[in-house]
Amino acid sequence: MKVPVAWLRDYVDLPANADEIVARLAALGFPVDEVETRPQLTNVVVGRIAKLERHPNADRLQLCTIDIGRDETLLIATAATNVAQGQTVPVALIGAELAGGLKIAPRKMRGIDSQGMLISAEEIGLPGEWFEDGIMQLEATMPLGTDVVAHFGLTDPVLDVDVTPNRPDALSIVGLARELAASFGVALRVPDSEVEYEGDSDDARVTIETVDCKRFVYQRVEGIDVRPAQAGMRIRLALAGQRPINNVVDISNFVMLEAGQPLHFFDWDRVGGKHLIVRDAHDRERFTTLDGQERTLDVCAIVIADEEGPTSLAGIMGGQRSEVEPSTTQLLVEAASWTGPRIRRVSGALKLRTEASTRFEKSLSPALADVGAARAAYLLAREGGRVRRPRAAGQPVPDPAPIGLLAGEVQRLLGFELTTEEIERALAALGFVTQREPDRLIVRAPYWRGDIAIAADLIEEVARMVGYDHVRAEVPGTASQDIDSAEFDRETELATTLAGLGYTEVVSLSLQPGNVAERWRANGIAIDEPVEITNPLSDDQRWMRFSIAPALLEFAARDRAVRPYRVFELGHVFAQGEPPQETVQLTALHAGGPSAFGRLKSDVLALLRRATGVEARVERGVFPSLHPGKTAALRIGDRVVGYAGVLDPRLAHAYDVADTTALATILVEALPPYVTPRYVAPSKFPPVERDLAVVVPLDVLAGDLSDAVREEPLVRSATVFDEYRGPQVGDGKKSLAVRIILQSAQATLTDQEADAALARIVAALRKRFGAEPRA
Amino acid sequence: MSGMDSLESTLAALAARFDDALAGAANAHALDEVRVAFLGRSGEVTAVRRGIGTLPPAERPTAGKVINAAVEAMEAKLAAARTRLESAALERSLEDSIDVSFPGPAANIGAIHPVRRTAIDVARYFTRHGFAVVLGPEIETDANNFDALNIPPDHPAREGLDSFYLRPDLVLRTHTSPMQVRSMRKHGPPIAIIVPGKAYRRDAIDARHLYMFHQVEGLMVGRGIHFGHLKGMLLGLFRELFGPWADVRFRPSFFPFTEPSAEFDVKCPACDGQGGTCRTCGGSGWIELGGSGMVHPNVLRAVGYDPDEVTGWAFGCGLERIAMKRHDMNDIRAFVENAPGFAAGLA
Ligand SMILES: [Zn+2]
Predict the structure, then answer these.
(1) Distance from CA of B225 to the nearest CA of A (A)
(2) Terminal-residue alpha carbon distance, chain A
(3) CA-nearest residue of chain B to A339?
(4) What's A357-385 look like in SS3?
(5) Which of A659, A665, A613, A660 is closest to A637 using CA atoms?
(6) Domain match, A440 and A318 both
(7) What does the pLDDT look like over A493-540, one tens digit per residue?
(8) Is residue A721 packed enough to be buried (19+ CB in 10 Å), middle (13-18) or exposed (0-12)?
(9) What is d(CA A412, CA B229) in angstroms, rounded to the nearest whole number?
């Protein structure tokens, strides 16, 4: 909300400059997003055009004799065409500084000394297009010689104040002035609203047909003369970002900004049947709002209708049919209060947010309706209107519910002690009424604080008043609890280990365009049905990722200059289901360098060993994204915990990366808990190393062969280190060479014992795989 | 001349030649040749020893001793010469030098992502104080994400948490706060947890916003837990993350699930809180980091805790935001662009 500091000062004498006000607002919970500084302005005073005459030497100039309340008048030449004798105008004296860096110096205009300048709104830093062309017009009631800059506070900055949604009362100048007054300990000047009523508003009839109209205050005003509003009001509105229109519309906007209560003024002569009906809209009811848009409503909306149909969209925007026009002479002032959520729904559905709806949707206090109507009546009376006594429909204003604040509760929540007097003082400053009981205070919130419901709310108010800086930093004792950090610890272990193995972690966005899945399917890759976002910001973010691999492949293609390229991501992937399925996966990619697959597989096996404490078994497997004949399933116990393989060549082609690129995916939730390995004392006796080459059928896996070798009790380790296929072993066969380390824990092995062990191994391999030792 | 005299003069001549040969030996190999030539199986000493047989039997033992003494002396000289040569070689090798700046083969450098780095650092601090670190699903029920956190439908606060929906009752969590609800329903009180993880909000991507980002949530509920404990824990956290000069301030704010509520700011490291024209803090001297407060009694009730018995605090802040301040970054998009060298450069 745009808050001119000058406007704040209308209601409270703040012993503070703008910077201090900004700091104090932030400390009260109203951070200032931006401070808009105003141009430097000096030496502008109120003057009256005492005499107006033609410039003797120039057709387009006029000479004005200006009375600025001093003995001497000023002679000022002007080219403006809206000047007339008797007007009260702002006058820039010699030496004045104006907006845009303009400085007024004595100068001759066509042979005559001009002793200053009559100025426009733009020259005092206001939006020129919002004010009259030519010289700005002031009220004749302003004392001549008044310092215009100081009087209107034209150099005070304008603050853009952030108001949290629980505080619609502070979406108003008076609301913020009240907070500042309480905080600085100075008095608030409540705006005048005393007015002599002439008669009653009983010629209007109002029927409430919806429970979401909580209160409807209406008031008749006659004798309206539509014309520009007073300069002070126009300037306040313009500084607050609201375009001045005419005195009537401006009063409605002024009261909304000042008091926080949106109003609606009906042109009484155009209210059909002099009867307003507040009701739910009919389904598909059509209605033209005053912005000229025809809108189609549904039953969610609330309209204010007269006997000819809807004439206003309740809480959001008035209608064109009964809008105030220059010819308007009679008004019906409406100050209503609506159920916030209802207004919010309608405003959202119609995509129509207005200054009124942003206030009403936060549930304004019903009592504020009476306050707003009274203030509008006062201002309309000041413009010459004859105001009738207001009437109200709907529910009476409820009394605030008493809230008990137990002694000690402040300390229990805030951690520091305050005396009852301090608590009472803080609450009283904000308009709360307190009453002492033996063990508690009974507190009633002021009418404008609909957000206060429980003791904790009161404690926040107390804390705001004494200042959040009073909260003392204190380290709590360690809690005894039985929650572990296993999942986080495991993810940390996986990520840091893989990083240590040379892989860089990436984070990619979890939402994807639909063409990612289409691309995979078009290449023959079977994937689970992805999960759809029903309200995406764009089609690029419509689908939840079904795999981490697409992002890694895109990075690998983008960063093709970097090889070898090793990246991984650890995160959630999603698939349709009831409810949608969410699993934690780690996917790693290795591109470039010799034997990407072999390196990646070794790295992943090392990773699994580190994370689980046991060695994973390598088997043949199938996994989407991986080559069907070049995929290893990694098994621990009875669970497959991951896959490593060469990228499916169709994807390699689609993503334009090398077909040697390797991928591995670990199903993190399938990993068994870490098993602490048991200590095996190293043998004191020397190992014996033997190499064994055997010829086996092509489909025998090296891993199965070495597993079988390890079944011999004397084998300490067995590693397949070579494979040969070719004429020497024949079709359908291959030769595998295994390096076998034999070692006994009891004695040094003799050659005979080693030979015997090897013979047992050969016999076992022959039986299991049809293996023949190679000569 | 007696046989003995002749033997001694032979040995003396031999020793002289041995000395000459030794002096001429410049390396271990040459030394060995000298040893073989004089002391080897068919060396000169062996030849002299054979001459003992020509001596009268009475002189033979003496002759043997004389030869042995000469052999010992030669072996000692040989050993001394070997030691001399070795130390000379070591001295010489110390004079070698290489271009140590010549690049070695590329290292296998990997790195965890800076967001994880930050999460781990945050977790280390809290676990030291007895907190558990829990994770949770990114798809959340509307009820956990909003209702249980005292944000009923149509609450204005839902506006700032514009969420992605999968179904009318399922959202991508807009904050990590639903894990407060899930954890409290399962455990305690007392409870002390932090929750790092992803959250989603329907924001257009720009230098300050990603629709997917990471938060860390903190929650502590028990008897006697108050606002000061929240401040104490956050102060300690940011001193650990930013440095011992770090300072934390609270400002009143509004969150439906806390009361009182506070935003917390950390004193700007770039200008030490001076503000002015500082780019890092925009001139305020403080950097907004997150939201916090005392857990609202309605939230405690919703999970079955008794707000008359226990109190608690909660906070939430963006991990990217912390990481950006730690690494002096100004564009959040870098976290998901993953340019080569990005993570390694910040590790
Ligand atoms: Zn700074």
Answers:
(1) 7
(2) 91
(3) B154
(4) HHHHCCCCCCHHHHHHHHHHHHHHHHCCC
(5) A613
(6) no
(7) 999 999 999 999 999 999 999 899 999 999 999 998 899 999 999 999
(8) exposed
(9) 11
Most A CBs within 10 Å: which of B229, B313, B315, B324, as the mutation test of the A interface?
A: B229
Contact across the interface for A473 and B188, Cβ inside 8 Å: no
Same domain for B207 and B342, yes or no, is: yes
Q: Are residues A29 and A169 in the same domain?
A: yes
Helix (H, G, I), strand (E, B) or coil at B322: helix
> Are B35 and B137 within one domain?
no
Cα(B34)–Cα(B47) distance, integer angstroms:
15
Cis peptide before A446 (omega within 30 of 0): no
Q: Note the pLDDT of residue B270.
A: 80
Maximum pairwise Cα distance, chain B:
132
Q: Which residues pair with B218 in a beta bridge?
A: B194, B315
Per-residue pLDDT tens over the stretch A427-444:
999 999 999 999 999 999
CATH of the domain at A551: 3.30.930.10
| Structural domain includes residue B103 | no
What is the CATH classification number for the domain harbouring A455?
A: 3.30.56.10
A173-216, pLDDT tens digit by residue? 999 999 999 999 999 999 999 999 999 999 999 999 999 999 99
CA atoms within 13 A on the CB side of A436: 7
Give the pLDDT confidence of B305-325 residue by residue, as tens digits: 999 999 999 999 999 999 999
DSSP 8-state symbol, A600: H
Residues B171 and B198 in one domain: yes
Q: Domain range for residue A8?
A: 2-38+157-184
Q: Do B133 and A485 touch (CB under 8 A)?
A: yes
Query: Which residue has tokens 């307190």?
Result: A434
* A458 plus A531 within the same structural domain: no
pLDDT band at B160 (very low <50, low <70, confident <90, very high): low
| B220 and B293 together in one domain | yes
Asked whether residue B240 is assigned to any structural domain, the reply reads yes
Task: Compute and round to an integer the Cα radius of gyration of chain A.
Answer: 42
Looking at the fold, whether A278 and A362 belong to one and the same domain comes out as: yes
* Domains contained in chain B, number: 2
Give residue B83's domain range. Answer: 3-97
Regarding whether A596 and A458 lie in a shared domain, the answer is no
Cα of B314 vs centre of ligand 1, distance in Å, is: 27
- B148 and B218 assigned to the same domain: yes
**Ligand 1 ion local residues (Cβ < 5 A):** B 268, 270-271, 278, 280-281
Question: Which residue in B154, B187, B253 is closest to A482 by CB distance?
Answer: B187
- My answer on whether A704 and A756 are in the same domain is yes
Residue A109 has pLDDT above 90, yes or no: no
Cβ(A69)–Cβ(A92) below 8 Å: no
Residue A579 lies in a domain: yes
Residues 6+ apart with CB under 8 A from B33: B25
Whats the size of chain B, residue-wise? 347
- The mean pLDDT value for A666-676 works out to 97
Q: Classify residue B105: in a domain, yes or no.
A: no
User: In terms of domains, do A258 and A363 share one?
Assistant: yes
- For the segment A471-488, what is each residue's pLDDT rounded down to a tens digit? 999 999 887 788 999 999
A540-554 residues labelled b (16+ CB within 10 A) or e (exposed): ebbbbbbbbbbbbbe
CA B175 to chain A, closest CA, distance in angstroms equals 15
Q: CB-based contacts of A67: which residues, under 8 Å, 6+ apart? A: A47, A48, A50, A73, A144
Q: Which long-range contacts (CB under 8 A, 24 or more apart) does B4-12 make?
A: B4/B55, B4/B59, B4/B62, B4/B63, B4/B66, B7/B48, B7/B51, B7/B55, B7/B63, B7/B66, B7/B67, B8/B66, B10/B48, B10/B51, B11/B48, B11/B66, B11/B67, B11/B70
Mean pLDDT of A116-127: 95
- The count of structural domains within chain A is 6
Closest chain A residue by Cα to residue B106: A564
